[in-house]
Write a sequence for this structure.
DNA sequence: TCATTAGTTGAACGTGTGTTCAACTATTAT
DNA sequence: ATAATAGTTGAACACACGTTCAACTAATGA
């Protein structure tokens, strides 16, 4: 199916620009994964967890105390972070110790903080 | 109110770690702004818009054609991006031209893409 | 002046998502 | 063995959020 058949409620104003941009657009799957990544760190709870783990390896109870939340909600969030390879964990006795599994996240935080500072 | 009075459904396992991490944790407002930023780019539609604008300044109709969506939904998303100083716009005649207002976003995309590539 | 088109906006709708709750497993200590 | 505690998990709930729809403004051109 050609792109030109697609529905849109307005006329193309600058067809050349549209075509050129479309040609260089990342593929759908890449965009989905990218958006998922940002959505994952786009939550205060998960941000706090990641900032904490950037300082120290911690167990679920530690994190629950740092964030002042229940073990259950922390555990749920850790599960989605784990599923997306952003944190990793190791079990020692009854406790499960979590740590960052990816140094890109810290870089994302650095740039994010710069952006915020730049706004003021 | 001291931090120790807070409710949590488990015992502190490593009090020193918890205290130390709490001391270095960014303040609540910073974390809120940071999470908002990532949430904002954590959506496929807005990601596509930003990738497009990174290539070329575009009007709403152009973007609607690139994303194959209605002007209305594009306009809604542009409004929140504008509100958060991520895109800027200028009106020329009937058309409104949008462009990126912040180079941090492009850096965030670069790192995000690296992260995705790294996962495979 | 009137019709047309670009763009915005608010309300409504349906979906996605974070927290809570309760039940569960696994490990340790008595 | 049994109790206690760390952690996980699925369902339910409430709220947040993206898209649609309809009504609107502003600018252009006939």
């Amino acid at each position: 199916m050609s792109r030109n058949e697609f529905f849109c409620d307005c006329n193309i104003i600058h067809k050349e620009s549209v075509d050129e941009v479309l040609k260089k657009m990342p593929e759908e799957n890449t965009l989905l994964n990218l958006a998922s990544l940002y959505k994952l760190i786009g939550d205060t709870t998960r941000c706090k967890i990641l900032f904490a783990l950037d300082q120290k390896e911690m167990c679920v109870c530690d994190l629950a105390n740092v964030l002042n939340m229940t073990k259950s909600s922390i555990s749920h969030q850790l599960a989605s972070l784990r599923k997306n390879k952003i944190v990793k964990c190791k079990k020692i006795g009854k406790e499960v110790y979590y740590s960052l599994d990816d140094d890109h996240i810290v870089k994302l935080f650095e740039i994010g903080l710069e952006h915020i500072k730049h706004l003021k």
Q: What stands out?
A: Residues 15-119 of chain B form a domain with the Arc Repressor Mutant, subunit A fold (CATH 1.10.10.10).
